[in-house]
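Sample entry copied in:
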Amino acid sequence: MIDLHTHSLRSDGTDTPGELINKALALNLDVLALTDHDTMEGWQEAKNYLRPGLDLVLGAEISCQTEDGISVHMLGLLFDGENQILHETLTQTRENRHGRMERIVTRLQGAGIDIELSEVLEQLSEGATLGRPHLADALVKKRIVKSREEAFATLLHNNSKYYVPHFSPTPEEIVKQVAEAGGVSIIAHPFASLRGRTINSETFSGLVAAGLNGIEVDHRDQTPDQRAQLRAIAREFGLVVTGSSDYHGIGKDNRLAECSTAPEEWERLESLANDRRVVRA
């Protein structure tokens, strides 16, 4: 089994990178990608826990935004973690998340919701990337909502009046930066409409021109019809098709390796990086 999209405590997951590796080993996964939001902080710990039989793919899920304001997440895999330009982009994106969170909290307070920024930051593990799931966890802790799912369904979704965008490069910029860092890029859950506005099929030509390598097709937030549309787009542009869990640990229903990538698709994707960066024990 090959799972190319997972998260740890270093962003908004609930497992440490080591715990994530141990769970992948227990499930007999063949390949696991660690793709925390806008950070490479968990890479070393994940490598420390690696054991024979599991290949580790290091990457990040990078926050992007189209010029007309649609949120897009790009999975960058197998890139050189020492690349300065990409490192600076991830740093700027993370730093901007704090100002964004403060504005979201202010909007919630204006609606009479009793929540403080300090309570959100208490949910953040050391070195982690701040995100709306941490706000959701704070709302759960205060019993304002019952779960992360309820928090996003009622208060924190992209179309909510409390939503605030944050600094994000365009998807095309990130595709180019990942390529320049020697890696490969996959657009994550592009038609997951429950998350808010999504791109349309016409957007892919510009992404392909920038160097996009693949599409995350099999994902629980995309319907069978949406997956069929994405497969057709992948065939049209010769893109790699992936399937992934988007695992976050407890707080989300996503199960590790519930969707996976075919071995031949992974082999094709891995061959597109400019160096062999898969980590093995």
Observations:
- Strands lie at 2-3, 31-34, 55-65, 71-77, 184-187, 214-218, 240-243.
- The chain has ten helices and seven strands.
- The two ends are 18 Å apart (CA to CA).
- The mean pLDDT is 94.
